[in-house]
Amino acid sequence: MEFSKGATFAGESFKGQKWTILGEPYLPLHVSETSMLMHAEFGPESFVPTHVHDLQDEILYLLEGRLEFETEGKVITASTGDTVTLPRGIPHAIFNRSGALARALVVVSPTATMYDYMVAIDGLVDPAEVMRLGAEHEVRFI
């Protein structure tokens, strides 16, 4: 796989890619062996079901809006400017219950199978298929 180098300017993405997963847009901004950075939008009332990254830590920095993270029996509410760290191996879910769009920078480290997973699920609208492919890429949905 070719990795990022140089600059990704505003409005651009890694290799010109734009992924739409279950109707939500993701732009890969940086890809290397050790990390991947994406810009993600979470529409009102959207959610990412409970899942576990076996290989990656996941970090979200909220650029706009409010998201709720359910992890380890707690609900963490994060707003613009907040950072949420979700360590590998810990089940978590992400909800936008705010009624407004939320935007975040999402980092996974190391990249491992995450880039290939995002490419595989681009354009999918069936949650069952997203979950099935997750199991093939070390992302387990619970």
TrEMBL record:
Domain of life: Bacteria
InterPro entries the UniProt entry points to: Cupin_2 (IPR013096), QDO-like (IPR053146), RmlC-like_jellyroll (IPR014710), RmlC_Cupin_sf (IPR011051)
Transmembrane residue ranges: none
Residue ranges annotated for the Cupin type-2 domain, each copy included: 40-108
One Pfam family named in its UniProt record: Cupin_2
PANTHER family for this protein: PUTATIVE (AFU_ORTHOLOGUE AFUA_8G07350)-RELATED
Protein name: Cupin
Originating organism: Celeribacter baekdonensis B30
